[in-house]
Write a structure and sequence with these properties.
Shape: globular
Number of helices: 1
Radius of gyration: 16 Å
Strand content: over 45%
Strand order of the largest sheet: 9-8-7-6-5-4-13-12-11-10
Largest sheet: 10 strands, antiparallel
Length: 171
């Protein structure tokens, strides 16, 4: 993933306090492990339950949107149904309610994430928690960090003709 690797090129050790991120993410990430190395090996059932969710969406033009709400991983016959809901504050201050749903399924030692209608989205390998999704003409790259379990986060880098942002979600 050359684009996402470039995005995360500013990861450095911070005098024994963990990792800090320089550059485009404004120091938002601080993690004692590097994206899966040394991380807790999670499995699908570990996500079940109700999570507080905060999100920052940083656009390439410098504008920032924020989302606060909750994410619920509820059992369903094939795994877990993920549903998030909350309040989105756009860069101009406009507020709106947002929600979305996904299906999370066991796939051997990995976790397959699908859209609510069952279409494949991406696969999470806890040993190397990064993935790519292409929805032409847009490209979505993600890295998950489970090193501070049960707190975890993911960072999406989204690029396309009309999209260019980094979205960081904390659970």
């Amino acid at each position: 993933f050359p684009d996402i690797d470039h995005l995360f090129a500013g990861i450095t050790r911070d005098h024994g306090r963990g990792l800090s991120i320089a550059g485009g993410l404004g120091g938002l990430l601080d993690c004692a492990c590097l994206w899966g190395k040394g991380a807790v090996m999670i499995k699908l059932s570990d996500f079940a339950g109700d999570w507080r969710l905060t999100r920052r969406i940083s656009h390439s033009d410098g504008s920032v949107a924020r989302f606060e709400g909750r994410a619920v991983f509820a059992p369903d016959p094939a795994g877990l149904r993920y549903h998030e809901s909350g309040d989105l504050v756009l860069p101009g201050g406009q507020r709106m309610t947002g929600e979305r749903s996904y299906l999370w399924r066991e796939a051997g030692a990995q976790i397959a994430v699908a859209f609510a209608d069952g279409r494949p989205f991406h696969v999470i390998d806890p040993a190397d928690p990064r993935a790519h999704h292409s929805c032409a003409p847009d490209s979505y790259d993600v890295r998950y960090a489970f090193c501070d379990w049960p707190r975890w986060h993911c960072v999406w880098r989204v690029q396309g003709p009309r999209k260019d942002y980094v979205m960081e979600s904390h659970y």
